[in-house]
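Message: A physicist's question: would you kindly supply an amino acid chain plus fold tokens?
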Amino acid sequence: MTAVDTDIERRWELIRSKGPYGLLAVATLLSVATAELTPGAAERIAVAGLVAAGFALQLWWVRASRTRPGPSTAGAVYYTVRWALGFALTWLNPFFAFYAVTGYFDSDELLRGRRLPWIGPFACSIAVSGAQAGGLPFKESVQWVVFGALVVVNNVILTVVGHLTSQQEERSRARAETIAELERTNTALQQALDENAALHAQLLVQAREAGVADERRRLAAEIHDTIAQGLTGIIAQLQVVANAPDLPTARTHLDRASALARHSLGEARRSVHNLAPVALENDGLPEALKSTVAEWAERTGVRAGFTVTGTTEQLHDELSATLLRIAQEALSNTSRHARATRVGVTLSFLGDEVILDIRDDGRGFDPLALPERSHAGGFGLAGMRARAERMAGSLTVESEPGHGTAVSARVPLVRHDQ
């Protein structure tokens, strides 16, 4: 039940409990002012006695109704006795019809569930119509005609008002049911939102764990393909030195072992650098990519260029780190496998997305013939694709044996302040 419905019900309860007192008092005052309508002393004494009985009846019912709420036999008796008092008083003085009207207010509550619930309001209309027709008993025959017409009119009005009241109550019940259903829906929606929040937090944890696992696999493959192979080469050169027949041969292999050691150290430093993109600490992504491409070209001796297209935006840190690492991974793959003579890196700002393209003129490969991921390495493309997808983006690879390779990472543009 809404607050409005509660307030209306409280007012109706006040009318039912206090209304009979007020109407009986008003009717009594009017009867005193029109004492000529009850000229006999016996009639006046009867009026006084009936008024006192009416007040006493109301006092009794106020106490009794506290223990008998709703329809009951006691309520029906109270209603009948009160109607009888009202009818008798109206017979003695027509202004007591004000008191008889109280039967209209609480018939639904006191007579609900009875065999003939309409009998109460109809009986009240008899007393009211008699007063309207000039007061009981009638002295002229025309009063009976007027009385009959008034009974019909009063009951038609009662029927119409009762019908409208029933419709209003039905609407109120429907509104209350709708509100209750909305409250249940809101509760269910709040529960769903809470579950969604918990699931979102869980997914974030899982994504973070998946990112850590991917990074570990990438580093494992990186170490296997660079540092481990370098150390293997150093061991092989040292074994040759141990069996060298002369000093020049031994020195040659020692030089080779030293070069492999320096190269492996550089690879180790690069791998550590990839864990945290230091290049982004003081520079934006375009500057970091330009520096990375230049350093890679100097280290590998491969001709490489970097280009920026579109209006440069300050990207979110995580997005910048993801694109930088994809570029580093792609360049690393190029230096190890492509045998390229030229590499081009392009960063494109296209309004609501960012595209990173890395193209080389190397020997290429068949993307459909790539081996399955294994614990021994070869995680480059899968790792780059996983990075792009974690940013709600995608990574495509176009390559053909003998015609180079093109790697394109496309991600939504998320600005630094978002």
Summary: Strands lie at 303-309, 342-349, 353-360, 394-399, 405-412. The two ends are 45 Å apart (CA to CA).
